[in-house]
Amino acid sequence: MQDFNAFSQVCVPAGTAFQLENTGNQLLRFLQTTAPNVLPANPTPLPQSQEPALVCPWPGDKGLPRNERQRSGVLAFQPNFECDYHSHDRAEEVFFFSEGEGDVTVEGQVFRAKPGDAVVTPADAKHKFKTYDKNLGMWLMVAPNLVPSHTFYQQLVDGTWERLPPRV
Questions:
Q1: Domains and CATH numbers, the chain
Q2: Average pLDDT, whole number, for the chain?
């Protein structure tokens, strides 16, 4: 059994039985995601451990799962920040928001994100974030984890978007 509190990420290897038990007095909320079973042509072997691992207590560290199946971790955007419009080629991205509020734009549609919300961006969907007067904290997962990871876009004068060369 592994205890954790606050905002945490647990990586459970495929085929491993697990159970969540709330031993505290607050509501337990969790977001479960799965990485795809289809791997690239030459995947890196996964670790042999079959034990679930607490890998990222909030506010996060650098020891995050990263392999061909997925990459994930905890991220916080500073107040009054807006990231570039980008996408992940052939990869979905899942966000679970833990603090602050901000706008998530997916293919031109704007969602107001707040703690407890989850947003899924389909593979190849352009998306970006905009924060306001507080940090926007989130857990995210991209699956599969392909390289290059990010494709950015530049808005043209006619309002359309030009795809720039992919980059890591």
A1: 10-38+46-163 (2.60.120.10)
A2: 75
